[in-house]
Write a structure and sequence with these properties.
This protein is of the alpha+beta class. The chain has 16 helices and 32 strands. A hairpin with a 2-residue loop joins strand 25 and strand 26.
Length: 542
């Protein structure tokens, strides 16, 4: 019959019948509706449509059909290549495993969730492709992301769809109006059914004043591959009777909603997926910046001796000590004046011996229970926790927003769009502006960069470039900043090149590490009408 990779294969000794034409057999074993192999029962035959597989038979809606029972008995002895082989899958599966494999296959062809015009007529996307590429494609729809996922509940008769982040995982949230005041909410990830079970979520509904709320919870998400089917199945969705909810909230003019989505504990994930798969899921979603630390493990025994007696977090320098030798972390030192162990009064004594020991101990990220696998010494762990993908951090511009690192770009698009620059695209500047330090951001190759910029006065222009969230010792990106007379940038006059600095919040205010372009140099080559010039920033990998 030939290679297992190219067509149905019989493992029962029938290979000796060489008169069977393998290529013709492949063509004959194709469903006339979905063009996949006839390897899912019930397999039926219709005079109008021909042979139809079990994937499609339930939706055909025809009466004059014949079930192909003899064929079903024969096909049970065959193995088949995955129907997604054209998208890269090389698996060969037994007949009775086809449904399970196709359900979890990472290579299955999927449509963008915004392509279903009967559900979301105002959206328009015709993308189709490998499910592994879907997450990359969704970045194109950055305006459809909400972080945090909170919004005004849609009006009756309207559906809603948007995306949000949990760690590095993109969550698709669809809300469909069913009838009268009833809606169905479906939350999905682009993963397998088992991976979907590793998350839980809740929906909080509240009035305008946020002083009254209702919580609805579900214990799992669903796989995005079953989007349309599951949205029509009540057991897969969270049903919301908005009229009933409004009455419970004392009939406000508007109802506001917020979804809370979290990954389950590692213990629960192990019960769902097994040890190896659980480790893969937990580490796979972590924000590990240094490869040499990727496979290390925390020093659990030593860490147990480094627990702060007040907050139970692991202590890192500075560590304070009471007169009788008990230690607390720097955060709790500010909160308590009396030692919780011996009731002595704390002074300002430091436990330098213990601090030196922490330089040798491997600490886990404080977000490890929700999926981060980063491990390092006390020197690095606090810096990592500030930029961990699974930690909520405030906006760099201190606007009051807090969220996960992967959602920072979408936050800038929504709230600080005027401070986003396009890579390698000229933009105008005025020497009379930015007399205080201004901050501009570029999102390039999936990384965020911060340009601190100040102009005016005798110094001309002062600037520095940092890669946000980057902590490794060796630079990963370099920049070129050019100054021009005109928007076409046809004759660059001044060009600066350097390495993007490691992220340090203290450096954004242009201290001694900044670069200065003298005013007389700019006036001589770049500036027209006394104060105007053009700049262009280009970020490149080293």
């Amino acid at each position: 019959m030939g290679s297992k990779q190219n067509g149905p294969h019989c493992p029962t000794g029938l290979e000796e019948f060489t008169f069977l034409d393998k290529e013709q057999l492949e063509k004959d074993l194709i469903c006339n509706i979905c063009n996949r192999y006839l390897n899912v029962i019930p397999i039926i035959f219709s005079e109008n449509l021909g042979s139809i597989c079990g994937r499609c038979s339930s939706s055909v809606g025809i009466k004059a059909i014949q079930r192909q029972q003899s064929y079903e008995q024969l096909v049970k002895h065959l193995t088949f290549p995955c129907a997604n082989k054209v998208f890269g899958c090389t698996e060969v599966v037994k007949f009775d495993c086809v449904v399970t494999h196709e359900k979890d296959c990472r290579y299955q062809c999927m449509s963008c969730p915004l392509s279903y015009k009967h559900l979301f007529p105002e959206k328009n996307c015709n993308w189709r492709g490998n499910s592994k590429l879907l997450l990359e494609h969704l970045k194109v729809h950055h305006e459809e992301f909400l972080d945090p996922p909170q919004f005004e509940w849609p009006e009756k008769g309207k559906n809603k769809i948007f995306f949000t982040y949990v760690g590095n995982q993109v969550i698709t949230i669809a809300i469909k109006h069913e009838r009268k005041g009833r809606f169905s909410s479906l939350l999905m990830i682009s993963g397998t059914d088992l991976e979907s079970q590793c998350f839980r979520y809740q929906l909080e509904l509240s009035n305008e004043d946020k002083n009254s709320s209702i919580l609805l919870r579900r214990s799992r998400l669903e796989p995005l591959s079953e989007f349309v089917d599951f949205l029509n199945r009540p057991e897969k969705t969270l049903e919301v009777d908005i009229d009933q909810m409004s009455e419970m909230l004392q009939n406000p003019r508007k109802v506001f909603a917020k979804f809370g989505i979290v990954k389950k504990s590692k213990k629960e994930i192990i019960q769902i997926m097994g040890v190896q798969e659980a480790d893969s899921l937990m580490v796979g979603n972590s924000n590990i910046k240094t490869g040499k630390e990727k496979n290390t493990h925390p020093d659990e025994e030593m860490l147990s001796e480094l627990e702060c007696p007040v907050c139970s977090e692991f202590m890192v320098p500075p560590i304070y000590i009471c007169p009788t030798g008990h230690s607390v972390c720097s955060v709790c030192k500010i909160k308590v004046n009396i030692c919780p162990s011996c009731r002595s009064i704390f002074g300002n004594g430091r436990n330098f011996t213990l601090e030196k020991l922490t330089l040798k101990v491997k600490y886990p990220c404080r977000n490890r229970d929700i999926g981060c696998g980063f491990v390092s010494t006390s020197e690095n762990i606090k810096n990592h926790e500030k930029i961990c993908d699974l930690a909520e951090n405030p906006c760099i511009l201190k606007c009051g927003w807090k969220g996960l690192t992967p959602a920072l770009h979408n936050h800038f698009l929504e709230k600080h769009k005027t401070q986003l620059l396009e890579n390698n695209v000229p933009f105008p500047r005025d020497m009379r502006q930015d007399r205080n330090t201004g901050y501009y951001f570029l999102y390039v190759m999936g990384e965020l960069f911060c340009l601190s910029f100040k102009s005016g006065g005798k110094f001309g222009v002062r600037l520095n470039m940092q890669q946000v969230g980057y902590l490794e010792s060796q630079p990963k990106h370099k920049y070129t900043i050019q100054f021009f007379l005109n928007s076409q940038a046809s004759c660059p006059s001044i060009s600066l090149t350097g390495f993007c600095q490691n992220w340090n919040e203290n450096l954004i205010d242009l201290g001694s590490n900044s670069i200065t372009v003298p005013a007389e140099l700019l006036l001589k080559y770049c500036i027209y009408q006394g104060s105007f010039f053009y700049m262009k920033v280009n970020i490149m990998k080293v």
